[in-house]
Design goal:
The complex is a heterodimer of chains A (about 250) and B (about 400). Chain A has about 250 residues and is of the alpha/beta class. Chain A has a single domain (about 5-135, about 200-250), classed as Aldolase class I (TIM Barrel, Alpha-Beta Barrel). Chain A contains eleven helices and nine strands. In chain A, strands 5-4-3-2-1-9-8-7-6 form a nine-stranded parallel sheet. In chain A, helix 9 links the parallel strand 8 (about 195-200) and strand 9 (about 215-220). In chain A, helix 5 (about 100-110) runs parallel beside helix 6 (about 130-135). The longest helix of chain A has 18 residues, at about 65-80. Chain B has two domains: about 15-50 and about 85-200, Rossmann fold (3-Layer(aba) Sandwich), CATH 3.40.50.1100; about 55-85 and about 205-395, Rossmann fold (3-Layer(aba) Sandwich). In chain B, a hairpin with a 2-residue loop joins strand 1 and strand 2 (about 10-15). In chain B, helix 4 (about 90-100) crosses helix 9 and helix 5 (about 115-125) runs parallel beside helix 7 (about 145-150). The chains are: A alpha/beta (about 250), B alpha/beta (about 400).
C-alpha cells in the first residue's frame, strides 16, 4: 500500500485557506502531514515553495499562529477519524529564536508528532535531539541519497524512527529520475528499521508506485504547492476539493 | 597568527547546512587546508597578486585632511586601487585557485554592490572558467554599471527576484544552484561568512591587506614617531575588515574599529547595524552569528545607501571579536558617509566607495578626539567609481539628471 506524506505551507495562501488545504490533504488520503512554517530565507526550498513562504509571511504569519494552525489541523484529523501524524518542518532561525526546547514543546503541545529541520545537521544540532527526547518529539533527520557513507552512518547511529531522504541532489521542485544507487540508500535505511520518507520532485503516480517497496511513505511537496497556487484565488471548498483530487491522483489505485 | 581553520569563533560560526551541501563543504575544507600548506599555491597567489591585482596597494598619508581636522594623522590604505576596484579581488583569486585544484570548471557567486561579482567575473575571464553571478533585482537596478562589466567579462548575471531582492537573496539562490551543481562547480562566496570553512578561508585570502598594511605602518607611521591608535574599516559581511585586522587580532593594540551602516536611523528596516545590541544571535545561511531578526527569527529588511553594507548578518569571527571586546563597533549614517566621501575627494584626490566611506566617516570623527601625535589607518576597501550614479544623484541631482536625459535621448 502506498503512503504519502503531504506537504503544505501554513498561511498559504492565507491562514483560513491553508486550513482548507490541510483538510483537502486529509480527504485525499495523506498518511502524514508535513506542515512548513515559513522562513524568510528558505535555502533548501525551490521556487514554488519559496514563493509560497514569502506569500505566507506577507499575510502576517507568526510562529504562535503556526502552532494554532497545527492545533486546528490536529482537531480536523481527529474529526476525520483517521490517524495522521503531523511533522512541523522549518529552519534553524525560527527554532533558535524561540529557544529549541520551547519550540519543540509548543509543537508537541499543539499536536505535532515531530519535526523536520533541514538546516540543523546531526553534528551541529543545537541540542535538538536531546530536547526532543525530553519533550517527547520525534526528529526526522533529513539526508540525501548522494551523501557520503560516513554521513549516512552518522544518522543511522541514532536509529531514527523516521528519515527524510531527498532523492536528488539539489533543491525541491524538479522532476526526479530514480536510479539503483538511490534505491540502495533507501533500502539501507529500511533494512535498519527506519521508516523512510522519500521525496523531492514527485509529480506522478508512477513515481509513487516505483518507490512503494523501498519506502514507508513518499513525500509530495512542490506538486501540491503548485496546486494551491493554481487555486489561490478560490474559496475554501474549491481549494479543499482541488487539493484532495490532486493527492488522490498521485496515489496508485489499490 | 590566528588559527587557519576554526569552524567556530566563540559561540559563532559552524556549518548549518542541509545535508546535500555537506559534500562540497567537506571537499572545500580539505582543499583549503591542503592548499594553505602548499608553497606552490602561495607562489601562484602572489604572482597573480602582483601582476594582475596590482599588489601591494599603496598607503596614503592624508596630510591635508589631517591638517584640516587638526587631530590625529589619518592614513588611508588604498585597497580600492586593486584591479576591479576593491579588496574583493583578493578572495576571488584565492578561491579560483582552489577551484582549479579541485578540478571544477564552473564558478558561481553572489553579489550585492557588484564588486564581488565583478572581481569573480574578472578572475573567471583570466583563468578560463564559466561564470554565473546571482544578483538581486534591486541591486541590478542600482548598480547597473557593474552588471555591464560582469557581462563584458563574459559572466552571466542571473537576476534574483525573491525576498528583498538584494544580497541575502542572491546568497540563497547561489546556495540553491550549488546544491545541484557542486560536482563541477565551485561557489565563490564574497565575504567572510556562510558555513565553514568560508569565514576562515575568506579571512586568509584577505589577510594580504593586513600584512601589507602592517609593513606600511612600520615605514610610514612608526618611522614618523606617531602612535598608532586605531585601524578602521567598514563592515558589511566584513571581509575587508577581518583581512585588514588579521595581523593585529591577537595583540592588544591598536584599537580595531568596524563601522556598520547606520542608514537613515536605528529603527528596524532603516539600517544594517548588527552589533551593539541591534542584532540577535541566530542561524541563517549556514552560520551562527548576529543577524537583524524579528522576535520570531525572520530576517528583517535592511537599508544602506551602499549596496555592499546592506546585509542582515555579520561574519562570525567579527561578531565573536566584537562580543569579546577586541573589535569595537561604530555606525555611520548614509549622510555621514556621503560627507566623508566629499571630504577626502576634495582634500586628497581619492574617492572612497560608499561602503568604505562609512569607515572614512568614523576616521574623521575619531581623529577629532585625538592629538596630532597619534595616527589612524582607514581601509579604503573600494574606490567610488562604481557609485557614480548614486553619488552624483545625491550630490548634484539636477545637473546629473539633465546629463542622463541627454544621454538617453541620443
Amino acid at each position: 500500500m502506498s503512503r504519502i506524506m503531504a506537504h503544505l505551507v501554513t498561511h498559504y495562501p492565507d491562514a483560513d485557506r491553508s486550513r482548507a488545504v490541510a483538510q483537502g490533504l486529509i480527504d485525499g488520503g495523506a498518511s502524514y502531514l508535513e506542515i512548513q512554517f515559513p522562513f524568510s530565507d528558505p535555502t533548501a526550498d525551490g521556487p514554488a515553495i519559496q514563493k509560497a513562504c514569502q506569500d505566507a509571511l506577507d499575510t502576517g504569519f507568526s510562529v504562535d499562529e503556526g502552532f494554532s494552525f497545527v492545533r486546528n489541523v490536529a482537531s480536523d484529523i481527529r474529526e476525520s477519524g483517521r490517524e495522521i501524524p503531523i511533522f512541523v518542518m522549518t529552519y534553524a532561525s525560527l527554532i533558535f529564536a524561540r529557544g529549541v526546547e520551547r519550540f519543540l514543546a509548543d509543537g508537541v503541545d499543539a499536536g505535532a508528532t515531530g519535526f523536520i529541520l533541514p538546516d540543523i545537521p546531526i553534528d551541529y544540532d543545537e541540542g535538538v535531539w536531546d530536547a526532543a527526547t525530553r519533550v517527547g518529539a520525534t526528529i526526522m533527520p533529513v539526508t540525501v541519497t548522494t551523501a557520503a557513507r560516513a554521513r549516512l552512518d552518522l544518522i543511522l547511529e541514532r536509529s531514527p524512527k523516521y528519515a527524510y531522504i531527498a532523492l536528488r541532489r539539489g533543491i525541491t521542485g524538479v522532476k526526479t529520475q530514480l536510479d539503483s544507487k538511490m534505491l540502495a540508500v533507501l533500502d539501507r535505511f529500511r533494512d535498519a528499521g527506519t521508516r523512510v520518507m522519500a521525496g523531492f520532485g514527485i509529480t506522478e503516480a508512477d513515481q509513487v508506485r516505483a518507490l512503494e517497496q523501498h519506502v514507508h511513505a513518499v513525500v509530495v511537496g512542490s506538486a501540491l504547492v503548485r496546486t494551491v497556487t493554481d487555486c489561490a484565488a478560490d474559496d475554501h471548498e474549491t481549494i479543499r476539493a482541488a487539493v484532495a483530487a490532486r493527492l488522490k491522483a498521485l496515489l496508485p489505485e489499490t | 597568527m590566528t588559527k587557519r581553520y576554526n569552524d567556530y569563533f566563540g559561540d559563532f560560526g559552524g556549518r548549518y547546512v542541509a545535508e546535500v551541501l555537506r559534500a562540497p563543504l567537506d571537499e572545500l575544507e580539505d582543499a583549503f587546508l591542503d592548499a594553505m600548506d602548499d608553497p606552490s599555491f602561495h607562489d601562484e597567489f602572489d604572482e597573480i597578486a602582483s601582476t594582475f591585482v596590482g599588489r601591494p596597494t599603496p598607503m596614503l598619508y592624508a596630510k591635508n585632511s589631517s591638517k584640516e581636522i587638526g587631530g590625529a594623522q589619518i592614513f588611508v590604505k588604498l585597497e580600492g586601487l586593486a584591479n576591479t576596484g576593491a579588496h574583493k579581488i583578493n578572495n576571488a583569486v584565492g578561491q579560483i585557485l582552489l577551484a582549479k585544484r579541485m578540478g571544477k570548471r564552473r564558478i558561481i557567486a553572489e553579489t550585492g554592490a557588484g564588486q564581488h561579482g565583478v572581481a569573480t567575473a574578472a578572475v573567471c575571464a583570466k583563468m578560463g572558467f564559466e561564470c554565473t553571478v546571482y544578483m538581486g533585482e534591486i541591486d541590478i537596478t542600482r548598480q547597473k554599471p557593474n552588471v555591464f562589466w560582469m557581462e563584458l567579462f563574459g559572466a552571466t548575471v542571473a537576476p534574483v527576484g525573491s525576498g528583498q531582492k538584494t544580497l541575502k537573496d542572491a546568497v540563497n539562490e547561489a546556495l540553491r544552484d550549488w546544491a545541484s551543481s557542486f560536482a563541477d562547480t565551485h561557489y565563490i562566496i564574497g565575504s567572510a561568512l556562510g558555513p565553514s570553512p568560508y569565514p576562515d578561508m575568506v579571512r586568509e585570502f584577505q589577510s594580504v591587506v593586513g600584512r601589507e598594511a602592517r609593513a606600511q605602518i612600520e615605514e610610514m607611521i612608526t618611522a614618523r614617531d606617531l602612535n598608532l591608535e586605531a585601524l578602521v574599516a567598514c563592515v558589511g559581511g566584513g571581509s575587508n575588515a577581518i583581512g585588514f585586522f588579521e595581523p593585529f587580532l591577537e595583540t592588544k593594540a591598536p584599537r580595531l574599529i568596524g563601522v556598520e551602516a547606520g542608514g537613515r536611523g536605528p529603527e528596524p528596516g532603516n539600517h544594517a547595524a548588527r552589533m551593539k545590541g541591534l542584532g540577535r544571535t541566530g542561524i541563517v545561511q549556514g552560520y551562527k552569528s548576529l543577524f537583524l531578526l524579528d522576535p520570531d527569527g525572520q530576517v528583517q529588511d535592511t537599508h544602506s545607501v551602499s549596496a555592499g553594507l546592506d546585509y542582515p548578518g555579520i561574519g562570525p569571527q567579527l561578531a565573536a571579536l566584537g562580543v569579546a571586546g577586541r573589535i569595537e563597533f561604530a555606525r555611520a549614517t548614509d549622510s555621514e558617509a556621503l560627507d566623508a566621501l566629499q571630504f577626502f575627494a576634495k582634500n586628497e584626490g581619492v574617492v572612497f566607495a560608499l561602503e568604505s566611506a562609512h569607515g572614512a566617516a568614523e576616521a574623521i570623527r575619531l581623529a577629532r578626539e585625538l592629538p596630532p601625535t597619534s595616527a589612524i589607518v582607514v581601509n579604503m576597501s573600494g574606490r567610488g567609481d562604481k557609485d557614480l550614479f548614486i553619488t552624483a544623484k545625491q550630490l548634484d541631482k539636477e545637473r546629473w539628471q539633465e546629463f542622463l536625459a541627454r544621454e538617453a535621448a541620443e
